[in-house]
């Protein structure tokens, strides 16, 4: 058996775990990160692509990524399309902020490289089975490494950054403990080789259902359309996929091209019942899941990290427990704002299978209320570009 001693044991090498280790290292706080996946799996899994202004500022200021500025693209607005017309929401004029299109796996490549260059103890292929002694000041992570050897990490604090199927969350309070809702639809996502069909993202509510036209580069595009959660991603031909997409963005002719990746993304909203117990905290998808419509997933993880970094510095450098005691309640405020925003964008833009004529017209009335009102556009722009991060806790 291998026994590792460190100050903070981080389970999960996703954006939340890696960024936390990076910020803690800056304060001289050592950590160990373990992840059940391989480095290649982590760096190639396709996820969403929108970073809030605050996320970008933090990645750059902390030295975690400069590529976001050179290889990412700043977007100053999105288009809401409904009833056959497009309406642009201009972020800088409404909020002074923007967002960046920079795929999550690129953020991960930057973070893994930065952490390894700094000598971070980062172990792939380690399956965590449990967290023991969470209530004591020496909690332990128990797992099995890539060679089948038992590993124990003894730390002063354990962080569950291990995604929506979090083992750390299960050891805290059972996997289902929390608030959640399911949705009667999912997204059919594609990556294709084609020039962009639009410079900015189009979120389209149409009679045929929702579509999102997003981008990746000048030659690769990402698009989604609303589908049944049970849909088989391989059941449609490329021609059928293009027909579905084209029907949902009336007014735009999409540039078509070979589709080289397809997936069905199920929707779920979830917040864990306990975000922290004793010397264990949950961050990122381990703590919450949002539907992808508001592009909040990774940004919310970064906001958790900002708070936990403040709390752990106070606890581990000064023995001050006030900030860690305030962590869960403070994190939950932003989490529930983001839950609301993600649910709202989702419900306003999708067609539910049983929608009546009243439901449909009310939904168009809601969209019109937003675009006709400076206050409505400003709310959407503030939430989409991201509320400012907290700078202190407790
Ligand atoms: C993406 O480009 O993958 C993307 C963008 C915006 C969203 C969701 C996904 O709301």
TrEMBL record:
InterPro entries per UniProt: FAD-bd, FAD/NAD-bd_sf, RIFMO-like
Superkingdom of the source species: Bacteria
Keywords associated with the record: FAD, Flavoprotein
Keyword Flavoprotein: yes
Pfam families in the cross-refs: FAD_binding_3
Signal peptide feature range: none
Ranges where the FAD-binding domain occurs: 5-341
Name of this chain's protein: 4-hydroxybenzoate 3-monooxygenase
């Amino acid at each position: 058996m291998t026994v590792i001693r460190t100050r903070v044991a981080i389970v999960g090498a996703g954006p939340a775990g890696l960024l936390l280790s990076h910020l803690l290292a800056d304060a001289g706080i050592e950590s160990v990160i373990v992840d059940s996946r391989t480095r290649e799996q982590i760096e190639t899994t396709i996820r969403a692509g929108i970073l809030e202004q605050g996320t970008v500022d933090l990645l750059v200021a902390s030295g975690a990524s400069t590529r976001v500025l050179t290889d990412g693209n700043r977007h100053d607005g999105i288009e809401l399309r409904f009833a056959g017309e497009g309406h642009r929401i201009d972020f800088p004029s409404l909020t002074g902020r923007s967002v960046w299109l920079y795929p999550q796996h690129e953020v991960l490549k930057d973070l893994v490289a930065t952490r390894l260059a700094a000598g971070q103890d980062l172990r792939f292929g380690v399956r965590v089975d449990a967290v023991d002694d969470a209530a004591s000041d020496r909690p332990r992570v128990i797992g099995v490494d890539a060679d089948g050897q038992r590993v124990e990490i003894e730390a002063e604090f354990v962080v569950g950054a291990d995604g929506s199927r979090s083992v750390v969350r299960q050891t805290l309070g059972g996997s289902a403990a929390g608030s959640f809702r399911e949705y009667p639809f999912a997204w059919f996502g594609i990556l294709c080789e084609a020039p962009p069909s639009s410079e900015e993202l189009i979120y389209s509510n149409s009679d045929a259902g929702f579509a999102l036209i997003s981008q990746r580069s000048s030659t690769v595009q990402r698009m989604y359309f609303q589908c049944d959660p049970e849909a088989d991603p391989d059941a449609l031909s490329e021609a059928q996929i293009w027909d579905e997409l084209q029907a949902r963005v009336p007014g735009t002719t999409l540039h078509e091209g070979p589709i080289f990746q397809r997936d069905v993304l199920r929707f779920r909203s979830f917040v864990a019942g306990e975000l922290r117990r004793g010397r264990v905290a949950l961050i990122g998808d381990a703590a919450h899941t949002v539907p992808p419509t508001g592009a909040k997933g990774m940004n919310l993880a970064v906001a958790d990290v900002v708070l936990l970094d403040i709390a752990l510095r106070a606890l581990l450098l000064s023995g001050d427990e006030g900030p860690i005691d305030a962590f869960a309640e403070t994190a939950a405020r932003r989490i529930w704002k983001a839950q609301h925003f993600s649910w709202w964008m989702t419900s306003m833009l999708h067609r539910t299978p049983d929608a009546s004529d009243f439901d449909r017209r009310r939904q168009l009335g809601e969209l019109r209320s937003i675009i006709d009102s400076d206050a409505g556009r400003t709310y959407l722009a503030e939430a989409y570009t991201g509320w400012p991060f907290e700078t202190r806790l407790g």
